[in-house]
Specification:
alpha/beta; UDP N-Acetylglucosamine Acyltransferase, domain 1; 5-stranded parallel sheet; about 35% helix; elongated; binds coenzyme A
Length: about 220
């Protein structure tokens, strides 16, 4: 076949594009197949959420986009790395997960303890300052912005402090700068406004904000 330089280039680009499409399709099929079985620690849920409506990658699976997101989106990097060291932590390793958690902080600015539980489909925008303590429990599809802290209430000279860590229900949204302390529960689908300090439970589907946070809207009552 006699190809001019322009045609050869176009052919090569077409070939690479087809190759990328096929690879993305295969990856998608693989994710679907495995997710019908046992989901390993939320990793597949994260990948599916990336490609879902409203996810970081809009439209059909596209390998180039996926590679770009892996390279440049700190929220995706922070979660993938967390999935890896959480997996090691659950299998009884201690030092290596902690070293990887330190690396995560170094790379993304998010400090996520290997002991924290994060459900699949979580999205973290702007990882700077995100701090999730050892006992924090986060459900599925929770959205987190920068400087969100989930931690223990701590002790003071006046009070030994209460034990326990926050639990965040499925689909909740924690906007920038939200601090949730102690044994409190944020219900599924609740939204916490920017820079709020949550010290009490927040009912499912409600909106709360302020320092300390108060519930300002309840589901069905606006
Ligand atoms: C909580 C939030 C979702 C509320 O949205 P909303 O229901 O549309 O509320 P409104 O903007 O209509 O504000 C209603 C009232 O709540 C107040 N308010 C809103 N958010 C508040 C917050 N985080 N803290 C304290 N008061 C807040 C407003 O000042 C307003 O008060 P007013 O009625 O006395 O004028 C939104 O304000 C918020 O915090 N968004 C964070 C977005 C974010 O993190 N962006 C970062 C992008 S990188």
């Amino acid at each position: 076949m006699d190809l001019s330089p322009g045609e050869a280039e176009r052919d090569l680009v077409r070939m690479l594009r087809d190759l990328a499409r096929n690879a993305a399709q295969t990856l998608g099929n693989l994710v679907d197949a495995v997710s019908r079985g046992r989901e390993p620690e939320g990793l597949l849920g994260d990948i599916k959420a990336l490609f879902s409506e409203g996810g970081t990658l809009r439209g059909p699976a596209d390998l180039r986009q996926a590679v770009r997101v892996l390279l440049v989106k700190p929220g995706v990097q922070a979660l993938l790395l967390y999935r890896l060291y959480r997996w090691l932590h659950v299998r009884g390793l201690r030092l290596l997960p902690e070293i990887l958690a330190r690396l995560n902080y170094f790379l993304t600015g998010a400090e996520i303890d290997p002991g924290a539980e994060i459900g699949p489909g979580c999205r973290i925008w702007h990882t700077a300052g995100v701090t999730i303590g050892r006992g924090g429990k986060i459900g599925r599809d929770v959205w987190i912005r920068h400087n969100v802290t989930l931690g223990g209430r701590g002790a003071s000279p006046f009070d030994p402090g209460e034990e326990g860590y926050p639990r965040v229900g499925d689909g909740a949204i924690l906007y920038t700068g939200v601090t949730v302390l102690g044994n409190v529960e944020i219900g599924p689908g609740a939204v916490i406004g920017a820079h709020s300090l949550v010290l009490d439970d927040v009912p499912a589907g409600s909106l709360a904000y302020g320092v300390p946070a108060k519930v300002v809207k309840r589901p069905g009552r606006h």
